[in-house]
Design goal:
Helix content is 9%, strand content 34%. By secondary structure, the chain is mainly beta. The chain starts with a helix and ends with a strand. InterPro entries: CBD-like_Golvesin-Xly (IPR033803), Cell_wall_metabolism_enzyme (IPR050570), Dup_hybrid_motif (IPR011055), M23ase_b-sheet_dom (IPR016047).
Length: 409
């Protein structure tokens, strides 16, 4: 078997060499007129000769739980492009021919699934490795209940791309450079999702074919059409852990700034609303603007001790219906605390609370969402500014409470 496979690879290599060195053929790109089948096989043959990649991926979340401990859905090695053929093959060769459409959580899941689902419920999502942000926004701007919803994709410069789907907020923008385990956003349930979680996929950049970061351990030939290699860094725990802000209650010991108080200010036209789920029983809301800012909400907090703080915003299930809300956090630079830093985060409020999802009505409850971790110096006034310039018409933004939570270490 090994000799037969070697013969096939040798023939493919010879064909590739002759093609690339024949008159009139300058590169593989010039084969665009050839059949898609031949192009795909040529790409596969080329990838088969690439060096085995070194492990480079870290956990895309804070804490010390392993990927296996957080995984609820595995990648399907049998046609991992959501092909519903009634067969699911896990990385260790275990195969399911039934219950692959509704899945068995933690064992199989999703016929044709092209990545890993992890049980992150409105938690911070981190970059698995350094690289350049390729995508940051809605996967389908015309349908927020399709595919990955709010997502981020990163080119790691080594032929691989990682993607992070179903997010509720995004902290980065296309073109930005990120480091290992830098915050990208917060997990959520946007797109084609049944509930809050993180979907992470790894692709070959050349053709966006999904590969399994756990490689292939089965006792038969890997059915995936591209090579699968183990590319997780050994014991890739994060160096520190930030407070988890998810849920409906303010974090213990947080600096809480509510709307309507002396340390809250607003411009433009805002309306007052009172409901039992609002912090202290009330909030302010405004209509969105499709272009320029016509209303802002600003929360001010006096910082008692210099250091890093996790900043969170409370999203209620009333009046918060925008899908692209800009929040700007004004903080200090750690190297020069006298300089002011500004960072804008985009948050989707429409998939929090009660809303219509692709599989029916979803209820997440009210949520505190992280806007990221920032450095503030003692005595300065930390600020968070919400703008109604979302690019939408006919929907609303809600201003309730913001919290500043000290990060230990």
């Amino acid at each position: 078997m090994k000799f037969t496979r070697f013969q096939r690879l040798l023939v493919l290599s010879l064909v590739l060499f002759l093609l690339l060195n024949s008159p009139g053929v300058e590169s593989a790109a010039s084969l665009s007129g050839w059949s898609p089948f031949f192009q795909d096989r040529l790409a596969h043959a080329t990838e088969a000769h690439t060096q085995r990649p070194f492990p480079f991926l870290h956990r895309p979340y804070y804490g010390y739980q392993t990927i296996m401990q957080r995984t609820i859905s595995f990648m399907d090695h049998d046609k991992p492009w959501y092909a519903n053929d009634g067969k699911f093959v896990r990385f260790d060769g275990f195969t399911w021919n039934d219950s692959v459409f509704d899945c068995t959580s933690g064992l199989s899941c999703y016929d044709g699934h092209n990545g890993y689902d992890m049980n992150l419920r409105f938690e911070s999502v981190l970059s698995a490795a350094p690289g350049r942000v390729l995508r940051a926004g809605w996967y389908n701007p015309l349908d927020h209940n399709s595919s990955f919803g709010l997502w981020v994709a990163i080119d790691h410069g080594n032929g691989f791309v990682t993607s992070y789907g179903h997010l509720s907020s995004i902290l980065v923008a296309s073109g930005e450079q990120v480091g290992t385990q830098w915050p990208l956003g917060t997990s959520g349930t946007t797109g084609d999702s049944t509930g809050p979680h993180l979907h992470m996929s790894v692709y070959y950049l050349s053709n966006w074919r999904a590969t399994d970061p756990f490689g292939w351990r089965g006792r038969f030939h890997d059915p995936n059409i591209v090579p699968d290699n183990y590319i997780w860094v050994n014991a890739p725990a994060t160096r520190y852990v930030v407070p988890y802000l998810g849920g409906s209650h303010a974090y213990p010991g947080a600096i809480l700034v509510d709307d309507g108080g002396a340390v809250w200010s607003a411009t433009g036209s805002w309306h007052r609303s009172a409901f039992r789920t609002d912090v202290h029983g009330g909030l302010h809301w405004a209509y969105t603007s499709p272009d320029t800012t016509t209303a802002t909400s600003t929360w001010h907090a006096t910082i008692p001790v210099s250091g890093y703080y996790e900043v969170g915003v409370y999203v209620d299930d009333t009046h918060a219906t925008s899908s692209w809300v800009p929040y700007t956090v004004y903080s200090a630079y750690p190297g020069n605390p006298r300089l002011l830093a500004a960072h804008t985060i985009r948050l989707d409020e429409s998939h929090i609370g009660y809303f219509g999802g692709p599989f029916g009505t979803v209820s997440t409850g009210t949520q505190w969402l992280s806007l990221g971790t920032y450095y503030f110096r003692r005595g300065m006034t930390g600020r968070v500014v919400l703008s109604n310039a979302t690019g939408e018409s006919g929907v609303q933004v809600a201003a309730d409470a913001v919290e500043f939570v000290p990060v230990a270490g």
